[in-house]
Design a protein that fits this description.
Layout lengths: L14 H6 L7 H12 L4 H11 L3 H10 L11 E6 L2 H6 L1 H12 L12 E6 L11 E3 L2 E3 L4 H20 L1
Parallel strand pairs: 1-2
Antiparallel strand pairs: 1-3, 3-4
Helix pairs in contact: 2-3, 3-4, 6-7
């Protein structure tokens, strides 16, 4: 995910996507999904390209992209931390976890660290209430989290990921 670096935008990366959905009505959502997979998010240039290629207005493409929570208009971190703030998790400590993330990584929910390593999000139920409070880091569920433990686990995960990338 996210093949672009910096502000680079290569529209040719979408050629195969447009070819596979040529002449298909209702292809907007799968095309947006594939574009997001390619670029890591949906920058304005990609939305315009999709509108042009599918013969839709930019406002229609933007409207669909902003309606569904699965689409992101801003670059996201290499690692995604989701903090559950459903009732059970909230009561058992999610507000403390949020404060720990804010202090430990200097980001608010919905933001990405300046180095592009971590994006933090609040979600409203992960279906793991028995393990509250719950966090999910890059699809790995972590239950019964405490503030210090969460920050430590995230830092450890990011460090090990950097080592794997360097190897």
């Amino acid at each position: 995910m996210g093949v672009t670096e910096g502000d680079d935008f290569d529209p040719a990366l979408m050629d195969e996507v447009f070819e596979s959905y040529e002449r298909q009505k209702g292809a907007l959502i799968p095309v947006l999904q594939k574009a997001q997979h390619i670029y890591g998010y949906l920058p304005p240039e990609v939305l315009q390209l999709i509108a042009d290629q599918l013969g839709l207005s930019l406002s229609r493409v933007y409207g669909v992209a902003t309606f569904y929570a699965q689409f992101y208009l801003e670059r996201r971190g290499k690692h995604i931390l989701k903090l559950c703030d459903g009732t059970a998790c909230h009561v058992k400590g999610t507000p403390l976890l949020l404060t720990a993330v804010e202090d430990g990584f200097e980001i608010q929910p919905g933001e990405t660290t300046k180095d592009g390593e971590l994006t933090a999000e609040v979600v409203y139920c992960l279906g793991s209430c028995a393990m509250a409070p719950v966090a999910v880091l890059d699809e790995q569920v972590m239950g019964r989290m405490r503030p210090e433990m969460l920050v430590r686990q995230v830092k450890k995960h990011m460090a090990s990921s950097r080592k794997e990338t360097e190897a």
